[in-house]
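Bumping my old thread because nobody answered last time. Still need a sequence for this structure:
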C-alpha cells in the first residue's frame, strides 16, 4: 500500500523561534513544513512548487503578507492561507480576509488551536481543487509523454529515457501540457497565455517566448532536439507536431 502523502505547509514568518516551533509541531502532527522568513523567497518557491496551505505573517520585513497574496494572484497561484499576526484590530482582519485569506489568528495563540484551524481549512479547500497548478493543469493530472520524456505533475519533474530527471516550474508544466493536449494545431500566443496563466493574466508574449526558449534548452541538454516538433508560427504562436 502506498504511503499517505503528507500535506506540505508553508510557514512564512520572520520570527525564527516561532516558525521553528510551528514547524516541529506540524511534523509531530503528520505534516511537512517549509519555512521562509520573507515574502520574496516564499513567492519563488510557490512559482516552482506545490503546497497545500500557507501560514502567513501579516507583517514581514520588506514586502508584507498582503503584498505576497497580491503577487501570487498576478502569477495565477492559488493557495489556502491562514494569516497570523500580532494585530488585533477588526479592520486588519477584514482586509486580510477580503484579500483572499481563509482564516486569521492573532498572536499569541495556542498550538492546538492552530493545528485545528489548519485541519479545518485543509478539509474545506480539498473539495475545491487546491491541487491546481496552472489554469489548465492540476496536481492530480496523469503523467504524459512529451517527445519521449515523461512529464510528471505530482512531482513537477521531467524524467528522461536515460534515467535522469529535471525539476520544472508550474508554468513550464502548464505549457507542455497544453501543447501535448493540442498536437498539430497552431496555437496563438494569446491562447497559450490564457490557458496556462488564466484569462485575465497580464503576461507579455515575450515572457511566453522566454519560457519556450528555456524548455527547448532543457530538452536539448538531454539529447532531445525540439526544432522540428515544436515550431514557431511567425506572427501567431507555436505548433507542436511530434512525429507519429
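Sorry it took so long. Here it is:
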Amino acid at each position: 500500500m502506498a504511503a499517505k502523502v503528507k500535506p506540505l505547509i508553508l510557514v512564512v514568518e520572520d520570527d525564527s523561534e516561532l516558525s521553528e516551533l510551528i514547524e516541529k509541531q506540524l511534523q509531530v502532527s503528520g505534516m511537512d513544513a517549509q519555512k521562509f522568513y520573507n515574502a520574496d523567497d516564499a513567492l519563488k518557491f510557490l512559482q516552482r512548487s506545490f503546497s497545500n496551505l500557507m501560514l502567513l505573517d501579516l507583517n514581514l520585513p520588506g514586502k508584507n503578507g498582503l503584498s505576497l497574496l497580491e503577487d501570487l494572484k498576478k502569477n495565477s497561484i492559488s493557495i489556502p492561507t491562514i494569516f497570523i499576526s500580532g494585530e488585533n484590530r477588526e479592520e486588519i482582519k477584514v482586509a486580510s480576509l477580503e484579500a483572499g485569506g481563509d482564516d486569521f489568528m492573532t498572536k499569541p495563540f495556542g498550538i492546538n488551536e492552530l493545528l485545528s484551524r489548519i485541519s479545518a481549512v485543509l478539509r474545506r479547500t480539498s473539495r475545491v481543487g487546491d491541487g491546481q497548478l496552472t489554469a489548465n493543469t492540476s496536481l492530480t493530472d496523469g503523467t504524459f509523454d512529451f517527445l519521449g520524456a515523461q512529464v510528471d505533475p505530482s512531482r513537477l519533474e521531467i524524467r528522461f529515457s536515460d534515467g535522469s530527471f529535471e525539476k520544472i516550474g508550474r508554468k513550464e508544466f502548464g505549457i507542455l501540457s497544453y501543447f501535448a493536449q493540442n498536437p498539430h494545431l497552431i496555437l496563438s500566443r494569446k491562447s497559450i497565455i490564457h490557458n496556462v496563466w488564466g484569462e485575465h493574466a497580464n503576461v507579455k508574449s515575450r515572457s511566453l517566448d522566454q519560457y519556450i526558449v528555456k524548455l527547448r534548452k532543457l530538452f536539448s541538454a538531454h539529447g532531445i532536439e525540439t526544432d522540428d516538433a515544436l515550431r514557431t508560427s511567425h506572427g501567431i504562436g507555436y505548433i507542436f507536431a511530434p512525429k507519429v
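The mean pLDDT is 89. Let me know if any region looks off to you.
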